[in-house]
């Protein structure tokens, strides 16, 4: 019996040929070149990253939009202007809409091109840089709902000093646009963000209050701002609260805005009924207000009188009265803060809110008095101390006679228990000539509410 061959087969081994060795060598070489290039890149290049939580991010975008505006200064479109910034030749552009307010009251809308998400190249002071703007849409900021964004600037390591020059120039440009203007901030999650474009400051003298009222508040605020060390030496929390109360249209908010501009302060507007605002967020906001900014809380009497009611969509405000008091002067409250509150109904306020330490100075801003009316009338229709031109050219003797008439009208109506607001007077003076205003002013008086007497 002859043995049978096994059905299993042995693997056939081939000898390594020259082509296999060449492939391995190329793979090793390729990896070596990749690692060398990566190492060389790390040694020769430097990158700067900034995200949209840092103020430098907005400064840099403003700076880039300024470059496009400068390119259009000659009147030609940017795509025809030879000196247009290099990044504008990119196919990935964004738009920045800017509302400009002119001194005469008119406004216009300007569209500026900015670098959109993508990769761009820019030459600055003879240094070439790569600008990479990235946006993360899958995981937005849970507090604000806006996407996270980063800008990465890459250049040669030897030119790294250009970063400081570029950021300084961008910062100076952004702050230069705010010179002589008032910035209004609103809560954005747990942060304060500018609302709209900076506004032109309102002269303090343009808000006409009763004699001595404006000076009293201004002097108190200035004295507080100059006594930081005095508070520290005595262990007193460095914060101060003001309550301006009075009827609607008396100029409370307007005066606060003008005072902030006169002292080169900004304003942080806080709405206690804002959706999503809770005690913890409120404490964080008041403890982290921007430097040189007043906190303004308007109509404070309406914030807590309907705490158990919900809106039509079922939303219920979650800021509690005790939480608000703790945010003002509790253990976790911040310092170096000036808070202004306004109300039309001071009698509705809880005594715990207006006690000293939370409200350090309460001032009545009342309806128009005869003296206020005269001052406002002369400011609108006379040249005044500042050389302002009125609506019409009125001889001085005629202006004085008309001012006497309107002042006497207010005095007579006030004696009858009737009132007129400064807002109503201002509206009348804006739309009327001087003689027409004197004739019509009596029609604007209303009966004074019994509780206001």
Walk me through what this model shows.
The chain has helices at 18-44, 55-71, 162-176, 213-225, 228-233, 252-262, 279-287, 321-329, 370-381, 396-415, 422-431, 434-440; strands at 45-51, 93-101, 107-115, 118-124, 127-136, 148-156, 181-182, 184-188, 191-194, 199-200, 239-245, 266-269, 293-297, 337-343, 361-364, 418-419, 446-447. With 453 residues, the chain is an alpha/beta fold. The chain has three domains: 45-72 and 84-177, no CATH class; 199-305 and 317-364, P-loop containing nucleotide triphosphate hydrolases (Rossmann fold, 3-Layer(aba) Sandwich), CATH 3.40.50.300; 370-447, no CATH class. Strands 9-8-12-13-14-11-15 form a seven-stranded mixed β-sheet, with helices on both faces. A four-stranded antiparallel β-sheet has the order 1-6-5-4. α7 (279-287) links the parallel β12 (266-269) and β13. α9 (370-381) packs parallel to α11 (422-431). The radius of gyration is 33 Å and the shape is elongated. The model is unreliable at 1-10, 73-84 and 306-311 (pLDDT under 50). Its main location: mitochondrion. Residues 20-207 form the BCS1 N-terminal domain. This is Mitochondrial chaperone BCS1. Keywords: ATP-binding, Hydrolase, Membrane, Mitochondrion, Mitochondrion inner membrane, Nucleotide-binding, Transmembrane, Transmembrane helix.
Helix-strand layout with pairing:
Blueprint: H1 18-44, E1 45-51, H2 55-71, E2 93-101, E3 107-115, E4 118-124, E5 127-136, E6 148-156, H3 162-176, E7 181-182, E8 184-188, E9 191-194, E10 199-200, H4 213-225, H5 228-233, E11 239-245, H6 252-262, E12 266-269, H7 279-287, E13 293-297, H8 321-329, E14 337-343, E15 361-364, H9 370-381, H10 396-415, E16 418-419, H11 422-431, H12 434-440, E17 446-447
Parallel strand pairs: 8-12, 11-14, 11-15, 12-13, 13-14
Antiparallel strand pairs: 1-6, 2-3, 4-5, 5-6, 7-10, 8-9, 16-17
InterPro entries: AAA+_ATPase, AAA_lid_BCS1, ATPase_AAA_core, ATPase_AAA_CS, BCS1_N, Mitochondrial_chaperone_BCS1, P-loop_NTPase
Pfam families: AAA, AAA_lid_BCS1, BCS1_N
Catalytic activity: ATP + H2O = ADP + phosphate + H(+)
